[in-house]
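[audit] Reproducing an earlier prediction to check determinism. Same input, same settings, fresh worker. If the tokens differ from the archived copy the diff job will pick it up downstream; this log only records the rerun itself.
[audit] input (302 residues):
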Amino acid sequence: MKNADIVSVQFKNPTDSNRTCCVCGAVVAQLQHAGYKNLISHHHGYKEAAAMCMKNPCAPTPSMFAHKDAANTFGWTKLVALKNFPFAHVDDPVIRDTIRFKPMDKRTLLKRMMSLVGVVDIKAAEELGGEKFVLVFDGFTDAAEHAIVIFAATKKGIRFLTFSPFQDEASQTASEHIAFLDLTLDQYGLDVANLIAIVADNMETNKAITRRIKVAMIGCAAHRFNLAVCQWIEPHMPLIKKVSSLMQRLKTEKRVAKLKLNGCKYKPLALHELRWSGCYRMLKRFEDLRRFLHLFVDDCDI
């Protein structure tokens, strides 16, 4: 749909410098032959509303558009949730001047986001109610803090449930995991009788969980493949460790600068022992750097 078609539905009384909104009656400035950006961004959701009016010939109504305050809250929420936008920057006047959303202080945004979580939880509980489901979960550790992410998969699709720090990081046993899963199921009103299986890494803790709650476990194929490759390369680990040690020595600023000076566009990569892909990338990078190693023939530490 062209912008001109959208504007023709959404506005009336066109002049050389402005048009009148059919929904709220506001006069929006826009010079002719200067595009339609200012006009089509007047209301959030203009594309869907215009398409509806053209499909079923009718005039646009306020109910077709999101409230401006709600649209602004949604915009700030997307920045925080999807782009890791710090709450402190919400109050920054420079940030406010460069973002098209209406200014909002961080306390107001935080309160609205917390309220939004409650609304989404209710909607998710209604959608999952009475459905057979599979739990998909995995652990994540960052800066010495361990968290678990949990999804519920049904015939309707996959629904995100929680991504929360672990309750007792000192004891990450099967019992602790089961208690955490029970807490999540209770929050969404999910009946464990409707639980068909769990999908998780092929770890002993996860296997113990499936035995205790008496459901099937669908192991992660990527994790199984990673374990298989790690087992296959085990006999070659002494050589891989030597390459890793060389990479660590090459990562100093002076040595990287020397590589750049001699036309090398690659940087040394360290070994990631937990994933086979990290090992593969390191060895491939070693092959890329091999023809430059003669530059360090007089370097006693290489």
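[audit] rerun output stored. Observation attached for the diff report: The CA atoms of residues 134 and 153 lie 5 Å apart.
[audit] end
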